[in-house]
Amino acid sequence: MKQYLTALAARIDALSLRERAMVFAAAAAAILFVVWSIMLGPLFDRQKTLRMQLDQARNNIGGIDAEITAKVQGFAADPDAANRERLARIKATSTRSATNCARWSKGWWPRNGWHRCLKPFLRRTGSCRWCRCGPCR
């Protein structure tokens, strides 16, 4: 082995400076190729795979965030809002009608004297369904 290395050293010493630079560049390129294919290539491939998985996870998180936002907005909307608004309008109309009726009928008959006005009607129908009071029977 020592003889082989001595012969190799003698051959390299016999080369000119330009040839020595070309041999060094070729040896460095060979070493870089081996290091790249054995060590760095698989590492870069693994990094690429992990980046793709990370991007996919970020996309999934974005989709889940959108779903959560939609559900929160769905819970924020009151499903009975339309019914509540309708009920408020009906109550307001009822209150207005009662107030107008009380103003309109004021002074026509005494309080609780409406039974006398309705007695003929009540005799025909049989009874008062609204109050079931004594004078109506």
Mind describing the biggest β-sheet?
none
Residue share in helix: over 70%
Rg: 50 Å
Beta-strand residue fraction: under 5%
Structure characteristics:
137 residues; mainly alpha; 4 helices; 80% helix; 0% strand; rod-shaped; transmembrane
Textual characterization of the structure:
With about 140 residues, the protein is an all-alpha fold. The chain has helices spanning about 1-15, 15-75, 80-105, 115-125. The longest helix has about 60 residues, at about 15-75.
List the helices and strands and how they pair.
Blueprint: H1 2-14, H2 17-76, H3 81-105, H4 114-125
Short account of what is shown:
The protein is mostly helical. The protein has 4 helices and no strands.
